[in-house]
Automatic annotation (TrEMBL):
Keywords: DNA-binding, Transcription, Transcription regulation. This is Helix-turn-helix transcriptional regulator. CDD domains: HTH_ARSR. Coiled coil: none annotated. It comes from the Bacteria. GO terms for molecular function: DNA binding. Residues 9-104 form the HTH hxlR-type domain. Pfam families: HxlR.
């Protein structure tokens, strides 16, 4: 538990646990069914493994998460108390989408973007067999510009080095623009029309790519209308 607010208010008591750095993001990952330690790490790629382990221990001790073991495999699952946090996470996501629209350069994380895309593949939409989507972000920091999603009927892998398979299509975009597409700030069709995103490959596959992924769960959240002096 974090530092006590020394208030009997239930909001204060809840926040003693939940407002510690990264804690609610770990709950977010558990809500969307990440269960293994490495899965959780990939959902919070800038969090150290040591701190992740510490926060999980706190959540287990608080009765929000249960640590389950099956032989050598360890999984973390939400308890009944943890599952009640789902609407809290969803409400925060809706509110953040609607009212915190700006994202800074430091927020542009290609590791998180590819992990989000990986867990939102529409398997029935991709071609049969192995599909390899090569992502190229020319404006990303050196070492994070090239990514591959290797989609098979069994699983989807995220690779930051060339896996050696034939590439099905290549998606080239500014990192911010691709994140805006994922968030629903910019539609696939508009991004392709203005050249913010380019897809290279056979024509039928190029046209199909937007349908291979669902967008963020918050992509459809209505944004507020900005009132300008000329619109009065």
């Amino acid at each position: 538990m974090g530092s006590s607010y020394r208030q009997f208010c239930p909001v204060a008591k809840a926040m003693e646990l939940l407002d510690e750095r990264w804690t609610l993001l770990i709950v977010r990952e558990l809500v969307i069914d990440s269960r293994r330690f490495n899965e959780l790490r990939r959902g919070v790629p800038r969090m150290s493994p040591t701190l992740l382990s510490k926060r999980l221990h706190q959540l287990v001790r608080a009765g929000v998460v249960e640590r389950q073991t099956d032989g050598k495999e360890v999984q973390y699952v939400l308890t009944a108390a943890g599952r009640e946090l789902r609407p809290v996470i969803e409400a925060l996501g809706v509110w953040g989408t609607r009212w915190i629209g700006q994202i800074g350069d430091a927020d542009l994380d290609p590791k998180l973007l590819l992990w989000d895309l990986r867990r939102n593949v529409v398997r029935d939409a991709v071609p049969d067999g192995r599909t390899v989507v090569h992502f190229n972000f020319p404006d990303a920091p050196t070492g994070t510009r090239y990514w591959w999603l290797v989609i098979t009927p069994e699983d989807t892998d995220v690779c930051d080095v060339d896996p050696g398979h034939a590439v099905t299509v290549t998606v080239t975009a500014g990192l911010r623009r691709m994140i805006e597409v994922w968030r629903g700030d910019l539609s696939w069709s508009e991004a392709l029309r203005v050249g913010a995103v380019r897809v290279d490959g056979p024509e039928a596959l190029r046209r199909a790519v937007p349908g291979w992924f669902t967008l963020s769960a918050f992509a459809a959240v209505p944004r507020p209308v900005t009132v300008t002096p000329d619109s009065r």
